[in-house]
């Protein structure tokens, strides 16, 4: 097949990678439906994917990964900068030359007998100011088909790149799917990503976490913008006005659900709507005209967790994946050739194959031992087109992005954080982001689990030193004349029996409306040691059963004892981040401690 570009930087790099991996042939992905369809047919013929019921699930396919290859592997993810301190203490680090020597041995000859696909892709709308281009080389059709959904792929990317060397080089080889030799590596100084011995999404769809977060966060610092692990949503008011919020939560805190929320009945009746711009990643730039921070979602699709997605928790996600979707590691219902997962409905298939490829029915399922007995892997996924989402924002393809009114941080805290609070200012808000954390909750016993600090939900995704990343947040605040206000929410406060108090899901809009009202100075608040907390009567509870103003008061109370206990944990974490922690963050920490008394 002919090359699709004359760009000598691209061609010489591909030559070099092909000389090392030794594929039988090289195929350029042009983004055409015709080529995609031929690849689907080929992958079906080898069993790599299974074509599902085309009446019920048009253009949908199922894939099962290797059993040892079902999630991101943080302990095997490396940031390879020349100096160790540039990667920092939170990332795994290895010197570039040393890592490459190791990798090249694994890559050498790894594509013998296979095809190398060349995927030119864009993160962001091709040609927009936000867009960044990448080329992924892979020997997996599954990767090609996923990239066609998750990113903007095609010859227009090569045209936009022209003869420039400014693109991110990504090399992925499945090799032996050997967990002991699995590496997800980033070379931010040379714009390279190398992934080997995995076939699982987060490790191999190099545009997502690897490029759009790790490499992009590095570029953002260098170039004066931000790459964040944030959803983007728009709230449409009954009068037609729209306001946008970005929000960062650690994995497994319901980001996709919040991004696509459906307003509760009472608010819907008044005319409120929510539009989704993105569910996972936001790129943020200061707009020179109005001095506001603007956000785009650089992705083109959703790589969502399937289990727990249902008509009640997230009908929009469910409808998004009824067509043009690749399901990974879910249950295959053999009777009607569809898919199923735990939490989809109460109607598990009787005749089915589980994510491991073994016969399965619900009698094998033991709730107490989900990991071993679930039909769908707990981290099973759908890869679906954003364009198919019923609530996708009309601004999804906007060249300039959407203006951000509020940035929201969140975590899963049983006691410590109230339902919502507002930071005093950008600097304090950056501090609030730096101390973000999530707990594992043992719901039944009401026990408080282990705290994992996850600053800005970026712990696994910052492509450089965490302390320098915090400094970048502080610096950005000074460059945004009309900066968004920064908030923190916690949907997961529990009562003494360990039950969640706040209903969550669509009702979270009630909290978002308070947040947006604050951004416009339309509502008062109470100043506390941790920030501004709503007056209970300012959270709209119309139509909410079981929630009284006293419940809201409870949800908004600041539990000083647990904050004081948390301070010790924060100090230990700051010490771990080490010397690069900005002095300003320590000042904010001391000020918080003083306010707590
Ligand atoms: C994801 C994650 O898959 O954050 O989006 O883990
Ligand atoms: Mn994520």
What does the model show?
The chain has 597 residues and is an alpha+beta fold. The protein folds into three domains: 8-48 and 71-221, Phosphoenolpyruvate Carboxykinase, domain 1; 228-299 and 393-596, Phosphoenolpyruvate Carboxykinase, domain 3 (Alpha-Beta Complex); 302-388, Phosphoenolpyruvate Carboxykinase, domain 2, CATH 2.170.8.10. The protein contains 18 helices and 31 strands. Strands 1, 4, 5, 6, 7, 8, 9, 10 and 11 form a nine-stranded mixed β-sheet that branches. Strand 22 and strand 23 form a beta hairpin. Helix 17 (560-577) packs antiparallel against helix 18 (583-596). The longest helix is centred in the C-terminal third of the chain and has 18 residues, at 560-577. The chain is globular and about 65 Å long. Mean pLDDT is 96; it is low at 442-447. Bound molecules: oxalic acid and manganese (II) ion (MN). Manganese (II) ion binds next to loops.
The hetero molecules present are:
oxalic acid, manganese (II) ion
CATH topology of the largest domain: Phosphoenolpyruvate Carboxykinase, domain 3
Helix/strand class: alpha+beta
Main pleated sheet: 9 strands, mixed
Per DSSP, what share of the residues sits in E-state strands of 2 or more residues?
A: 15-25%
Quote the distance from N terminus to C terminus. 71 Å
Features of this protein?
597 residues; alpha+beta; Phosphoenolpyruvate Carboxykinase, domain 3; Phosphoenolpyruvate Carboxykinase, domain 2; nine-stranded mixed beta sheet; binds manganese (II) ion
């Amino acid at each position: 097949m002919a090359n699709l570009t004359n760009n000598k930087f691209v061609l010489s790099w591909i030559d070099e990678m092909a000389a090392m991996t030794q594929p039988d042939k090289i195929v350029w992905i042009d983004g055409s439906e015709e080529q995609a369809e031929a690849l689907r047919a080929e992958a079906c013929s080898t069993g790599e994917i299974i074509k599902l019921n085309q009446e019920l699930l048009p253009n949908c396919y199922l894939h099962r990964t290797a059993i040892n290859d079902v999630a991101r592997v943080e302990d095997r993810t490396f940031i390879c900068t020349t100096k160790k301190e540039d990667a920092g203490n939170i990332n795994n680090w290895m010197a570039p030359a040393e890592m490459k020597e190791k990798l090249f041995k694994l890559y050498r000859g790894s594509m013998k007998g296979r095809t190398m696909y060349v995927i030119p892709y864009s993160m962001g709308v091709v040609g927009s100011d936000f867009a960044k281009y990448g080329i992924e080389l892979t020997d997996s059709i599954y990767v090609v088909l996923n990239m066609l959904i998750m990113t903007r792929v095609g010859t227009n990317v090569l045209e936009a790149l022209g003869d420039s060397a400014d693109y991110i080089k990504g090399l992925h080889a499945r090799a032996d799917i050997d967990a002991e030799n699995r590496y997800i590596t980033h070379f931010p100084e040379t714009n390279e990503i190398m992934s080997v011995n995995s076939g699982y999404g987060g490790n191999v769809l190099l545009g997502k976490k690897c490029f759009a977060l790790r490499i992009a966060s590095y570029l953002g610092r260098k170039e004066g913008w931000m790459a964040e692990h944030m959803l983007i949503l728009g709230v449409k008011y009954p009068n037609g006005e729209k306001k946008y919020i970005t929000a960062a939560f650690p994995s497994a805190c319901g980001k996709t659900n919040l991004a696509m929320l459906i307003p509760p009945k009472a608010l819907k009746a008044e005319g409120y709507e929510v539009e989704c711009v993105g569910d996972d990643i936001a790129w943020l730039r200061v707009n020179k005209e109005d001095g506001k921070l603007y956000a785009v979602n650089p992705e083109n699709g959703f790589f969502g967790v399937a289990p727990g997605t249902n008509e009640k928790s997230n009908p929009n996600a469910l409808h998004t994946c009824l067509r043009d979707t690749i399901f990974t590691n879910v249950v295959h219902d053999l009777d009607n050739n569809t898919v199923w997962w735990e939490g989809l409905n109460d109607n598990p298939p009787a005749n089915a194959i589980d994510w491991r490829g073994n016969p399965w029915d619900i009698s094998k399922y033991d709730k107490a031992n989900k990991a071993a007995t679930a039909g769908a892997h707990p981290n099973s996924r759908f890869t679906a087109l954003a364009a198919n989402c019923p609530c996708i924002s009309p601004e999804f393809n906007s060249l300039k992005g959407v203006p951000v009114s509020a940035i929201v941080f969140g975590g899963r805290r049983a006691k410590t954080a109230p339902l919502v609070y507002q930071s005093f200012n950008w600097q304090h808000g950056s501090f609030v982001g730096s101390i973000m954390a999530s707990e594992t909750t043992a719901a039944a016993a009401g026990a408080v689990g282990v705290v994992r600090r996850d600053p800005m939900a970026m712990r696994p995704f910052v492509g450089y030193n965490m302390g320098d990343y915090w400094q970048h947040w502080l610096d950005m605040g000074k460059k945004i004349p009309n900066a968004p206000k920064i908030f923190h929410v916690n949907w997961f406060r529990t009562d003494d029996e360990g039950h969640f108090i706040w209903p969550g899901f669509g009702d979270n809009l009630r909290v978002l409306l308070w947040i947006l009202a604050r951004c416009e100075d339309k509502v008062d608040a109470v100043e506390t040691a941790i920030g501004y907390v709503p007056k209970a009567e300012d959270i709209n509870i119309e139509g909410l059963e079981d929630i009284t103003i006293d419940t809201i008061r409870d949800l908004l109370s600041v539990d000083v004892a647990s904050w004081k206990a948390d301070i010790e944990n924060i100090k230990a974490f700051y010490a771990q981040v080490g010397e690069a922690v900005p002095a300003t963050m320590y000042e904010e920490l001391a000020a918080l401690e003083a306010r707590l008394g």
